């Protein structure tokens, strides 16, 4: 059993801050459970383009408001507490944060924590040793 409080992740290698967003990773590939689990903050007034070409991600919004844009179709979806979105088709997407948005995210395959978004917003598929 593993029990962690969010504050315990602060200023560790599981606390990743990239300006527009901050992600604290409770579960990573090294935990060997088949998924990774993150608490992610998207900062107010930012717009972040992402495309998980190598991962499926489920995102649950529990605080804040904004807009999710499907870049392939142009569809826009309101984000507010209680909204879940699933990027099950490796969807190119943009998140516009009107306020700080807090989310709980699950990735499959799990991320290692070493990934960095490339110029297209893609995380490379890294494997744990």
Automatic annotation (TrEMBL):
Pathway: Amine and polyamine biosynthesis; ectoine biosynthesis; L-ectoine from L-aspartate 4-semialdehyde: step 3/3. Gene3D superfamilies: Jelly Rolls. It catalyses: (2S)-4-acetamido-2-aminobutanoate = L-ectoine + H2O. Signal peptide: none annotated. It holds the Pfam family Ectoine_synth. Its EC number is 4.2.1.108. Belongs to the ectoine synthase family. This is L-ectoine synthase.
């Amino acid at each position: 059993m593993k029990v962690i409080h969010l504050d315990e992740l602060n200023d560790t290698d599981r606390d990743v801050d990239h300006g527009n967003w901050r992600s604290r990773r409770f579960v990573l590939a090294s935990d060997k459970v088949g998924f990774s689990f993150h608490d992610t903050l998207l900062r107010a007034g930012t717009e972040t383009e992402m495309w998980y070409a190598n991962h499926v991600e489920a995102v649950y919004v529990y605080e804040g408001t904004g807009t999710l844009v499907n870049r392939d179709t142009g569809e826009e979806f309101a984000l507010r507490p209680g909204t879940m979105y699933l990027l099950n088709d490796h969807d190119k997407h943009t998140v516009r944060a009107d306020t700080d948005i807090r989310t709980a995210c699950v990735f499959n395959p799990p991320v290692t924590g070493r990934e960095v978004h490339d110029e297209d917003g893609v995380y490379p598929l890294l494997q744990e040793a």
